Amino acid sequence: MTSAPHPPRPVLEVTGLTVRHGPRRRRRTVLDGVSLSVAPGETLGLIGETGSGKSTLARAVLGLVPVSAGTVVVDGEDVTGHDERRWRALRRRGVVQYVFQDPLRSLDPDLTVEESLTEPLLVRGVPRTEAAARARRFLDRVHLTTALLGRLPGELSGGQRQRVAVARALVTEPRLVILDEPVSALDSANRVRVLDILGELRADGVALVFISHDLGSVAGTADRVGVLYRGELVETGTAHAVVNRPGHVYTRLLVGSAPTLRGAPADRAERDRLRALLHA
C-alpha cells in the first residue's frame, strides 16, 4: 500500500504575527495574532478596509516593519529576526517580490523599461545578454510589446506601468509575490488584463498574496480569501465559501455591499443592521 503524497511545503507561513506601533505607553496594536499560509501555485486574497492591517502584514513579511510577536517563514526560512544584511541577501536572491499599488513607486522614473527589468538580474550576476533576453520574455508574459523596452515609466499608460511592475517582480522567478492593491488605480479594461495575468501565474507554481479592499476583484482571482478587520484575521476560506457562506458580520457586510458578487447589494436597512452588530 503506497502512502499518500505529502502536501507541498507552504511558500509563506505566518504564525501568531503581532505588530505594535508607537511609544510604550501609547502603543497601538496594528496586527493581532495573525496566522496564515500560502502554498506553491496558490493565490491568497487578503481583504479589509483601510487601516485593517493589510499593508502592515505585507511589510512585516518583507521585513520592512518590526514584528512584536509571532514568526514569518518564507520558502522554509525563518525571516522573523533577520537583520538588514540577511534581508538584503534574501531580496537579492529574488525569492520574494512586492508590487506596489502605484507602479511609479516601484519603477525608477529615470530607467527605461528594459533597464528596470534587467537591473535585478544584473545585481544577481546574470550576464547582460541573458538578462536582456529574459526581460523580453517577461514583458511578453504580461502581454506588452518589446517596442516599450526603450521607454521611461512616464511615457507609459497606467495599465502599462502596472504590467511592467508585475514583469519586474516576475523576472527573478520568485517563489512568492505580494501585490498591494495592484488594480485599484486601473480602469476596468486594464484591471481585467492584470487579473488575467495573475491567474496565469498559478500554473508556474508562484505563490501570490493579493491585497485589496475590493472583494469582487479578489473573489474571481484567489483560491482562498482571508478577511482582516481591525488587525485580526476574522475569517478564512475558499473564495466560493467566503462569498456564498460568509460567517463573520464584517464579511457579510462586505459581501452585501458588493453587487457584482451576489446580485443586488443588500438594502440600506440590512447594511445598517450589520454595522450595528459589528460595533456592538
UniProtKB/TrEMBL annotation:
InterPro entries: AAA+_ATPase, ABC_transp_ATP-bind, ABC_transporter-like_ATP-bd, ABC_transporter-like_CS, P-loop_NTPase. SUPFAM superfamilies: P-loop containing nucleoside triphosphate hydrolases. It comes from the Bacteria. GO terms for molecular function: ATP binding; ATP hydrolysis activity. Residues 12-255 form the ABC transporter domain. Keywords: ATP-binding, Nucleotide-binding, Transport. One of its GO terms (biological process) is transmembrane transport. Pfam families: ABC_tran. Transmembrane segments: none annotated. Belongs to the ABC transporter superfamily. This is ABC transporter domain-containing protein.
